Every structure is written in C-alpha cells, then in structure tokens.
Prior knowledge:
By secondary structure, this protein is mainly alpha-helical. It has 8 helices and 2 strands. The chain has helices spanning 6-14, 20-40, 43-60, 70-91, 118-129, 133-144, 149-156, 160-177, and strands at residues 200-201, 204-205. Strands 1-2 form a two-stranded antiparallel sheet. β1 and β2 form a beta hairpin. It is elongated and about 55 Å long.
Amino acid sequence: MLSLSDEELLAAHVAGDRDAFAEIVRRHRDRLWAVAMRTLHDREEAADALQDALLKAYRSAAGFRGEAAVTTWLHRIVVNACLDRVRRRQARPTVPLPGQGEPEGHARPEPASPVVDHDTHLVVRDALQQLPEEQRAALILVDVQGYSVAEVAVILGVAEGTVKSRCSRGRARLAVMLGHLRNPAGHGGVSDPSRAGLDQTGGRPV
C-alpha cells in the first residue's frame, strides 16, 4: 500500500479498502494540521476543523474527479472547514466578563521595545489573525506553507490573479500593522515586518 499513489489509494478507499484512506491521512496530516493551526490559531478549533474536514473527505471521496492532486483537494476541504469556523466565530463576538477589563486607576503600560525573537513571532501571528479571512488563507498557503500561486488558486477555487491580489493586500496590511518592528539597518531590525516570525525549514516556509 505504501507504493500506491494518493489517487490509487483514494480509488481503493472508494472501492471499499478500509485502510486506504488512513494511509492518505498519514501522509498528509502534518501539513493539513499546520494549515488548520495557522488559520485558526487555536488547537481545539484546529483539531475540530481538521476532523470535520477529514470526515467530509472520507464521505465525499467518490466525488473526486482527479481535476487536481489529492493533496490539493484535501487542502481545499481543510481550508473551507477552517474559514467556516472563522465566520461562525466572527458572527458570535465575545463580550468581556465583569472584572476582565482594565483595572480602574491603572494606566495601560507602555509596550516594551520590540525584540526580534519568539515575541516577534507572536506579534506577527496575532497580526495575521486580524487579516480578512480570504487574505489570511492566501498568505498562509503561499508565504507560510510554500505553495505556488497556481496551487493556491486551485485550493481556494479562485483565479491566480485573485490569489496574487489577496496576498499583496494582506502583505500591505501586515506591513502597516507591523511597522513598529522595522528598526534602522544595522540595529537588528526586521527588514520586512510582513514576513517576520514566519518559520523557515530547508529554505521553504512551513
């Protein structure tokens, strides 16, 4: 079974092989999980979204027409499951409970000087969460996961030009939100705050 392609495994799953889909999940779960986590920024929600997506893929495998790679098809389902949760979360804004606001008589402390380390990564991550969902999804797939614009266009079901536009607008928004991370050259500053804190492995975003 390890020698079978994703497409062959999916066909075997549709034909009734009980182990074929599990092998597909084993191959791609880590990357699908990374997309879910970076989109939702919440382990519980990401786990639920990934579970929902894999269940949908399991049940709808017979409808796979081979117009894209199996991994692209899976990513599309995961991204859609995550964006559905983002929309539901935005439709139910939370209200701080009594006592959770700023203490009376206490001024908000001045932010500490930015440091390009783990704290910077957290700042960038939080800024990413403030982007419109379409821009966030495009940036995560292109800049963080390392997919090509053409691949992301298939995953999101939009034109390549739309992906480029969403990425461009998202990077511009991040540059504004993260402008405080830019320090003079030679002082350990971040040359491009819109990409600061994005992990790199083997020269390719992860």
